[in-house]
Design a protein that fits this description.
Layout: H1 3-7, E1 25-26, E2 33-35, E3 45-54, H2 66-71, E4 94-102, E5 107-110, E6 118-119, E7 126-128, E8 140-145, E9 152-161, E10 171-178, E11 185-188, E12 198-207, E13 210-220, H3 224-231
Parallel strand pairs: 1-11
Antiparallel strand pairs: 2-13, 3-8, 3-10, 4-5, 4-9, 6-7, 7-8, 9-12, 10-11, 12-13
Length: 245
Amino acid sequence: MAFWDNLFPGRTAQFDMGGAGADAIDLTRRRPTVSLTKQGAAGGNLRVNLSWRMRTSDFDARPRQSGQLLRHPSRLFKPEIVQGHTQGMVNVDLDLGCLYELTDGSKGVVQPLGDLLGDLNSAPYVKLSGDDRFGGSSGETIFVNLDHKDEIKRLLFFAYIYDQTPAFDRTQAKVTLYPSNGPRIEIDLDERAPQARSCAVFALENVKGELTVRREVRFVYGFQAELDRLYGWGLQWGRGYKSKA
């Protein structure tokens, strides 16, 4: 039973979890695509989760020489001195969003900004479950109703930094897909782009009835409008704000 099942008793059948206990498929530069249709997962609800945790400012600067650890084994258990940031920890609010295009030509976005949360049982068949502002273990989740796959042309999932700190390189972020059948699919946002504010993570496309997931992991220095231009969505963008929690 998942952790959130205890939080919401009686609602465990609302979404198909899928992929529990199965091996994971890592999408990388060398292996960027996987077919949901071929693994029998082109139906039910696809769960897409963004999770992250912040690094200390000197996380990557720790001495890694095995000789030093052999000479001073106690350093394995000694806290590192944090430098380079007034709070010692990068405070980043990552958001998960999805640009959608349906086969009838309608387009739009599902995201926390503007409370554009979508809908699972009617167009766009994409639903954001909530906004995690602290990088908790549950992260942020978007569901896609693949029982309506014939009405979906393409989806582009992206992550962006809401606050004023462009620090993708200081977070350890991962997007995990949980299909209704077969192994989960994992995409690490592990490429360094210190000043980037947004990242196109993956595309889900319906080509002649076959649903394919394609890794993007493409960092940009702007926000949704720049992703829109890169992928040719053609939406009109304005400044957006989150509702106060």
